[in-house]
Every structure is written in structure tokens, then in C-alpha cells.
Amino acid sequence: MLFSLALALAAATAALATAPHSDAKFALTSIPSTPDARRTVVATSRASSGNNVKLFDYFNGTDLQWYGQLSLGTPLQNFTVVFDTGSVSLEVPGVACGAACANQRQFDPSKSSTFQDEDYNTTVTFGTGIGVDPVVGNNWEMDLAFVADVLVVGDINVPLGGFFLITNQTSTFLPDPFDGIMGLSPDMGDFFADAGLPAIFGMWFTPKSGKAEGAGELTLGGVDTTKFKEPLLYSPIVNDAWQPTSQGIFVNDKTTSTLNKTFPITFDSGTSNILFVEETALAIYNLISPDIVANPDEPGTFGIACDRIPTLPAVISIQFAGIPGQGSFNLTIPSSELSSGPFTNKPELCQTLINVSEGFNLIGLSLLKHYYTAWDINGTRMGFSPNGF
Ligand SMILES: *[C@@H]1O[C@H](CO)[C@@H](O)[C@H](O)[C@H]1NC(C)=O
Ligand SMILES: *[C@@H]1O[C@H](CO)[C@@H](O)[C@H](O)[C@H]1NC(C)=O
Ligand SMILES: *[C@@H]1O[C@H](CO)[C@@H](O)[C@H](O)[C@H]1NC(C)=O
Ligand SMILES: *[C@@H]1O[C@H](CO)[C@@H](O)[C@H](O)[C@H]1NC(C)=O
Ligand SMILES: *[C@@H]1O[C@H](CO)[C@@H](O)[C@H](O)[C@H]1NC(C)=O
Ligand SMILES: *[C@@H]1O[C@H](CO)[C@@H](O)[C@H](O)[C@H]1NC(C)=O
Ligand SMILES: *[C@@H]1O[C@H](CO)[C@@H](O)[C@H](O)[C@H]1NC(C)=O
Ligand SMILES: *[C@@H]1O[C@H](CO)[C@@H](O)[C@H](O)[C@H]1NC(C)=O
């Protein structure tokens, strides 16, 4: 019953993605823009080595969902959050949420001497869903209050950072294995400015069965050059989202007229696998095996008999535009990502890595864990170097 979510604000939509074969859901929404309540302040303490934040793989054996710690208030109250490149703000449960956030740590404003209420409340409603537990009406909703307080991530200290306290939420959120979400969309430039850091961060996730299994790291204000060897190759991003432009998808070196075209793809560290529009997903699956079929029990998902998985080559390469002066390059998802494991209700059927979405293309950890990634807000570009670990 573990799942993770991403308030994906890419193109003003929010994506709520889940771990494989869990109580799955995917949702879209838009949330009101943050009021102009963020303070621009000078960082009070910062050690360069402390810009690295350790990430933990929550789902042992899946390597698809990661979280880290941050702290809020004076004295500090600790929270675990998903660092989510698909969303734009920080949300943690507040004590006002009470039983509705019973499984999560709750921020207590009365215990912080530096807390400020910004007197602005809002609601996020998740709009469109697929999965075994679909979004229906307002069954995925969070009430939020905008506040400000000390924010510490790693050794970075923002004396007055704006964030949201969750004051109520529908019971659909109760199984969250982490407390909150810290958005790291390109709109988070204010956070880096408040922290006195360059507006760039690096992310390092590691595949299971690799040399560094279980290790993960977020670097704020730069990249950790000890975690990759080959120079980063950069692709420009568009639409104020982590959205480089794909120039074509190849499956085992083959493409089709459906796949050989130019379209933006969003990279989302809060999404476990991959979501593509139906025609793209079907075209990829057709090139892997005609026996990959939709699983009607979990709308949007596909699968194939588990005993077929080891025999199927499924190398997916996606070509991306390069920044000026640098050529296009491929990012490659190895065959080992084809299966995300058996479906709970049909153990002989293994879930394959791509879900069908309603109108957008999102890539998560299936690819991100195979590259060190640089997320360059100021440079409006993303960088990739193969993960040697
Ligand atoms: C994952 O495995 C590690 C080491 O075996 C263990 O310490 C940790 O508690 C596990 N985490 C979860 C969420 O099961
Ligand atoms: C918060 O986390 C830090 C670092 O892990 C730890 O030293 C501290 O004791 C924690 N504080 C609380 C109140 O749990
Ligand atoms: C926001 O919601 C909280 C918790 O429900 C409430 O105490 C507060 O009065 C609300 N603030 C505004 C400005 O509506
Ligand atoms: C795909 O759908 C399944 C079932 O609804 C879910 O478990 C999985 O997390 C979804 N994957 C993504 C990337 O949303
Ligand atoms: C919290 O949300 C639930 C719906 O999930 C609603 O029934 C309940 O009335 C809300 N509580 C408050 C205090 O707004
Ligand atoms: C932003 O990028 C420009 C050039 O691309 C550079 O001159 C400037 O120093 C950068 N600003 C910050 C805050 O990193
Ligand atoms: C990407 O991979 C495909 C298939 O292997 C190949 O045809 C294409 O030339 C590659 N693109 C680049 C820029 O290397
Ligand atoms: C892909 O499309 C480009 C331009 O539209 C074309 O030049 C190229 O031959 C196509 N490649 C394949 C393998 O179909």
C-alpha cells in the first residue's frame, strides 16, 4: 500500500504518481499560484559540503521512489519529503490536519518561535485519474495554509522560507510513506535565491543490484562531480518545466512514424516509471512484443507473462536536442527496466514500465537512476551523464 506523489506543476498540472503495483493512482490538477509572500533573505549558515542531502530508497528492491529529510521552525521540527521536480512548492502536514494526517509527522506552529502565518489558504483538487483507486470528483483533495518559517535542508538555512501546511486531506492520502513534498520545478528559483545559492541542483539515484545500491543524493546549488565521469550533455528545457525536447524514440534501434517525431517530455523525480500518451506507449510496446497487453484490472497499465520478461530485449533510447554548440544525444533505458514486478492480483502477469496517460509524457526513475542529472534553472537546461555506479 505504499505510494508516492508528485504535485507536478509542469505546465500548471500536478501529477500524482505511485509506486508499481501499489494502490495506484495518477492525477492531474492545477493549483493557484503562490502568493507573493516569500521573503528574499540572506543565508545565515552554509557549508559547501552540506549542500549534499542524502536520499533514501523507500521501497527496498524497487529503487523507484526516494525521499530525504528537511527541517522547519525554531527549534527545528524534522520531516521526510519527496524532492519532486514536478512540483512547485513545499507542503508538510500541520497539526491542524489531525487525524486526517495521522500517519505523518505534523508541524506544530505553536512550538516554533520564528513561525509566521501568511493568512492565505487554498485547496488542491486532483482532477483526472487512472488506476485501481481512481480520482473521482474530489476524492483527492488537500487543504493548505501558506506560512513561513526557518527552512533547513542539509546545511542550508533559509531564515524565512514560504511553504504550505496541509490542514486537511482526503483519506486517499493516508498511506503516504513520507511526510511531505518539496517541489523542485524550474519555478523554485526563489528558494535558491533565498538560500544564497546558484539556481541549479544535481540528483543521483542508483539502480538496485548496482555497485552503490541504496545510495542517493540531492545536491543543492551545484552538482556533485564525484558522482559522474563523462561530461554532462545538456538539453534546453521548454514551458517553464523540466521538459527537454525529444527528437524521436528508438526501441532496440528501431523506430516508427509514430515514434520518430519531436515532442517535449517532462522529467519528474516524483514519478516511479514512465507515462506516455496512448499512441506512443502502444508504438513502443509493439516494437518490444505484441504480447504486451493492457491489464483491464488496473486501467492505464500493461503487462506480459512474467516468464517472457528475461527473453525480451527492450532497450529504449530517446534522442534529445542538444544546447547550441552541442549535438543531440540519446538517453537509454536498459531492458532490465521492462518489468516493474508482478501485479498484486495477477502474479503471473508482470507490469511493464510504461503507463498510458491522458495527454502528457512523463519520465521518472526508470531512466533517472541510470544517469546523474543536473537541473539548471538559471541556464534553462537539463544535463545528463551516465551513472557509473
Ligand atoms: C530497507 O532495507 C534496509 C537495510 O536492509 C533497512 O534498514 C530499511 O529499514 C529498509 N527500509 C524499508 C522501508 O523497509
Ligand atoms: C532531526 O534530525 C537531525 C538530523 O538527523 C537529528 O540530529 C535531530 O535529533 C532530529 N530532531 C528531532 C527533533 O527529531
Ligand atoms: C486557514 O486554515 C486554518 C486551518 O483550518 C485556519 O485556522 C485559518 O483561520 C485559515 N486562515 C484563513 C486566512 O482562512
Ligand atoms: C502505472 O499504473 C499502476 C497501476 O495503476 C501504478 O501502480 C503505477 O505506479 C503507475 N505508474 C506510474 C508511473 O504512474
Ligand atoms: C476534511 O476533509 C474531509 C474530506 O476528506 C471532510 O469530510 C471533513 O469535513 C474535512 N474536515 C474539516 C475540518 O474541514
Ligand atoms: C545565470 O546565468 C548567467 C549566464 O547564463 C550567468 O552570467 C549568471 O551568473 C547566472 N546567475 C546565477 C545566479 O547563477
Ligand atoms: C540514437 O539511437 C538511435 C538508435 O540506436 C540512432 O539511430 C541515433 O543515431 C542515435 N542518436 C544519436 C544522436 O546518437
Ligand atoms: C526520422 O525522421 C527524420 C526527419 O523527419 C527522417 O530524416 C529520418 O529518416 C527518420 N528516421 C527513421 C529511421 O525513420
TrEMBL record:
One of its GO terms (molecular function) is aspartic-type endopeptidase activity. Residues 66-385 form the Peptidase A1 domain. It holds the Pfam family Asp. The active site is at D84, D268. GO terms for biological process: proteolysis. Keywords: Disulfide bond, Hydrolase, Protease, Signal. Residues 1-17 form the signal peptide. PROSITE patterns: PEPTIDASE_A1 (PS51767). It comes from the Eukaryota. Disulfide bonds join C97-C101. PANTHER family: BETA-SITE APP-CLEAVING ENZYME, ISOFORM A-RELATED. Belongs to the peptidase A1 family. This is Acid protease. It comes from Mycena metata.
